[in-house]
Write a structure and sequence with these properties.
- By secondary structure, the protein is of the alpha+beta class.
- The chain folds into 2 domains: 9-92; 98-168, no CATH class.
- It has 3 helices and 13 strands; from the N terminus they run βββββββαβββαβββα.
- The chain has helices spanning 79-92, 129-132, 161-168, and strands spanning 9-10, 16-19, 26-29, 35-37, 39-43, 52-61, 64-73, 98-107, 110-117, 120-127, 133-137, 140-144, 150-153.
- It has a 4-stranded mixed sheet.
- The N and C termini lie far apart (40 Å).
- 12% of the residues are buried.
Length: 171
């Protein structure tokens, strides 16, 4: 039997989110007076509902994050705080879109991708491609590189013939 885990819903009204002076660390002040330093934000549904269900995570130890609660929406949050949360989410979910594949080769047990994205030319590596290339729909894919970065192919059919042929060689 699984434990009953309740979500703590946070009201965005009156929340203050700020960066500590001279730091990259983010602090959140809840309307009830609770203050948490070193927080991160995560989307519960980053692809299907990116604007809602935002989790607030607090670092308790070096690599241990605990959820403080979740916002159903950021509507009603003071503008400066909302802007900072959105900046942090954009940084976390930065996902360049692959527009062309120049090379896709196996090197040392990993696949080396050389691609053109909407953010410029990139080279990245994918290990165990069957686990790190996720089909989101019949023509849409999410690719997770070994460094944790993400890339998206929005429409496989929109890629040029050579790019599609390189992908077909994976299978």
């Amino acid at each position: 039997m699984q434990p009953n885990i309740a979500i703590r819903w946070l009201d965005p009204t009156g929340v203050v989110v700020e960066r500590l002076p001279g730091s990259v660390v983010v602090r959140i002040r809840l309307p009830n007076g609770e203050v948490y330093e070193d927080v991160q934000f995560a989307r519960a549904f980053p692809l299907s509902h990116p604007q809602g269900y935002i989790s607030v995570l607090h670092r308790q130890e070096r690599d241990k994050w605990v959820e403080i609660g979740m916002f159903r929406t950021l509507e009603g949050m003071p503008e400066a705080s909302r802007r900072l949360v959105e900046e942090e989410l954009e940084r976390r979910y930065f996902t360049p879109v692959i527009e062309k594949i120049y090379a896709l080769e196996e090197e040392y047990g990993q696949h080396r991708w050389e691609v053109e994205t909407d953010r410029g030319r990139r080279v990245f590596y994918v290990s165990n491609w069957r686990e790190n290339i996720h089909e989101l729909s019949p023509a849409r894919y999410l690719i997770v590189a070994v460094d944790g970065s993400r890339y998206e192919i929005r429409d496989l059919n929109a890629l040029d013939r050579r790019s599609r042929a390189l992908l077909e060689n994976l299978y």
